[in-house]
Specification:
Blueprint (H helix, E strand, L loop, with lengths): L5 H26 E3 L4 E2 L2 E2 H22 L7 H23 L1 H7 L2 E3 L1 H21 L5 H25 L4 H5 L2 H15 L16 H23 L9 H27 L7 H7 L2 H8 L7 H30 L7 H22 L4 H33 L29
Parallel strand pairs: 1-4
Antiparallel strand pairs: 2-3
InterPro entries: Ammonium/urea_transptr, NH4_transpt_AmtB-like_dom, RhesusRHD
GO molecular function: ammonium channel activity
Protein name: Ammonium transporter AmtB-like domain-containing protein
C-alpha cells in the first residue's frame, strides 16, 4: 500500500502552486507585454525560434529524462523537472525584466528573453541533481524561486560592478548551480547516507531512459552555448557551434576511455558515461568567448572529460565521507569541475592573446573576482535556502521513503481493492 502522503501534498503543494500561479498571472496582466519588434538582435523570428526550441528540448526533455535513472523515481524525476522548469522560467522572466519595467513601465517579452529565462532555469535543474530523491516538490519549488533570484542577482552584480558581458555571466550557471546544490545537500544532509539508500539504485530500463536524456543534451548543447552569441561579428556563432560540437565529441571519446581504464574489469558504466560525455560542452561554454581555434576547444573537451570521469569515479564518495555532501547525480563532477576548468581556460587563453601585460593582469584580477563573487553568492544563497528547508513544516520525506515515487504519485495497480 502506498504511503499516506496525500494530506501533505494537498495542504502545502496545491496552495503554494495556486498562489504563485495566480500572482504570476496578475503580474503579467499589468506589467508584461509581448515585444512587437520583428527582429531579435538582427535575427528573424523564424531563425531564432528554432534555437529557442532547441533550448526548450534541453530544459524539458534533456534534464527531465536525465533524472529518471533511479529505479523507483522515474515519475518524480521527469515530472518534477517539468514543474520546476516552468515555474522558474516564469519567475526569471519577471526578475530579468525589472530594469525594463523601471525605465519603460513594462516588461518586454520576446524569444530572446524566454531563452535567457530558460538558461537561468537550467542552473536550478543542475542543483536539483544534488538533491534528487531526497526532497518533496514543495522543497523544489522553493529552491527554484530562491536560486533563480540568487542567480539573477549574481548576474546583475557581475555586469554592474565588473562590467562582465551578459553571455559570460549567464554561462557561469554551471558553477553557480553546482555549488548552490552542494551547499544544499550539506545543510540537508541525512544521517546514514554513507550507507547507500535502499532505493538508490538503477536498472537497465531506467538507465536507458536516462541515457536518452544525455543524448538529447549532447545533441542540442551546441545551440545552448551559441544561442546568445552576438552574430554581428561574422562567423562568431558558427565558431561557437563548431567548438562546442568538437569539445563534446572529444569528451565522449575520452570519457569512454577513462571509464574503461578506471573500472577493475574494464567495463563501461552507463550512468558514469552519461554524466561525463557532457563535460566538454560545459567547459567550452564557460570559456566560449576566448576560444577561437578548433584545437583549443578539443583540448578543453579532452581535459574536461578526464577531470569529470575521475571526479565521478572517486570524488563523489569522498565528498560524502569527508564533507557529508550526498550528491545524488554527481553534479560537482558533471558541471562544477568542468565549469571551473572552463573558467581557467578562459583566463589562460585571454592572457595568451593579450599583448599588454598590464591589461592581462587587470583582466586576471577581474576574472578571479568574477569567480569568487559567483561562488560566494551561490554558497550564501544555498545556505539560506537550506536553512529554510530544514523547517519541518515542509514535511521532508522520511529516509526510508526517499527515492520512491509512491510518496507523491498514484499507482492504480498498487491500490488496495475492498
Amino acid at each position: 500500500m502506498a504511503p499516506q502522503y496525500a494530506p501533505s501534498l494537498r495542504s502545502r503543494l496545491a496552495p503554494l502552486l495556486l498562489f504563485l500561479q495566480t500572482a504570476f498571472i496578475i503580474i503579467y496582466a499589468f506589467f508584461v507585454e509581448v515585444d512587437s519588434n520583428v527582429k531579435v538582435d538582427g535575427e528573424t523570428f523564424s531563425n531564432f525560434y528554432a534555437e529557442f526550441q532547441d533550448v526548450n528540448v534541453i530544459v524539458i526533455l534533456g534534464f527531465g529524462f536525465l533524472c529518471t535513472f533511479l529505479v523507483r523515481y522515474g515519475f518524480s524525476g521527469s515530472g518534477f523537472n517539468l514543474l520546476v522548469a516552468v515555474m522558474a522560467t516564469q519567475w526569471a522572466i519577471i526578475l530579468n525584466g525589472i530594469e525594463s519595467w523601471y525605465y519603460r513601465g513594462k516588461i518586454r517579452v520576446n524569444l530572446r528573453s524566454l531563452v535567457v529565462a530558460e538558461m537561468c532555469t537550467a542552473s536550478v535543474l543542475i542543483s536539483m541533481g544534488t538533491m534528487l530523491g531526497k526532497t518533496n516538490p514543495v522543497h523544489l519549488i522553493i529552491i527554484a524561486l530562491l536560486e533563480v533570484s540568487g542567480f539573477i542577482v549574481n548576474e546583475w552584480v557581475l555586469q554592474t560592478l565588473l562590467k562582465v558581458r551578459p553571455l559570460n555571466s549567464i554561462m557561469l550557471l554551471h558553477i553557480f548551480g553546482a555549488f548552490f546544490g552542494l551547499m544544499l545537500t550539506w545543510i540537508l544532509y541525512r544521517k546514514g547516507s554513507e550507507q547507500r539508500f535502499e532505493k538508490e539504485k538503477f536498472d537497465s530500463k531506467t538507465g536507458l531512459f536516462s541515457m536518452l536524456g544525455s543524448v538529447f543534451l549532447w545533441m542540442f548543447w551546441p545551440t545552448f552555448n551559441s544561442v546568445l552569441v552576438d552574430d554581428r561579428t561574422p562567423g562568431r556563432k558558427l565558431g561557437a557551434v563548431c567548438s562546442t560540437y568538437l569539445a563534446l565529441a572529444v569528451s565522449a571519446v575520452t570519457a569512454a576511455a577513462i571509464a574503461l581504464l578506471s573500472h577493475p574489469k574494464g567495463k563501461l558504466n552507463l550512468i558514469h558515461m552519461q554524466s561525463c560525455i557532457l563535460a566538454g560542452g560545459v567547459a567550452v561554454g564557460v570559456s566560449m568567448s576566448a576560444v577561437h581555434q578548433p584545437w583549443e576547444a578539443m583540448t578543453i573537451g579532452f581535459s574536461a572529460a578526464i577531470i569529470s570521469t575521475i571526479g565521478f569515479q572517486y570524488l563523489k564518495i569522498h565528498m560524502l565521507l569527508a564533507f557529508q555532501c550526498h550528491d545524488t547525480c554527481a553534479t560537482l563532477s558533471t558541471h562544477g569541475l568542468p565549469g571551473l576548468l572552463g573558467w581557467l581556460s578562459h583566463l589562460l587563453l585571454q592572457i595568451r592573446d593579450s599583448d599588454d601585460h598590464t591589461m592581462a593582469i587587470r583582466f586576471a584580477v577581474f576574472h578571479i573576482c568574477t569567480l569568487l563573487i559567483t561562488i560566494t553568492i551561490s554558497l550564501s544563497t544555498g545556505f539560506v535556502t537550506g536553512l529554510l528547508l530544514k523547517w519541518n513544516f515542509w514535511r521532508p520525506p522520511q529516509s526510508k521513503k526517499c527515492f520512491d515515487d509512491q510518496a507523491f504519485w498514484e499507482f492504480p495497480h498498487n491500490a488496495v481493492r475492498k
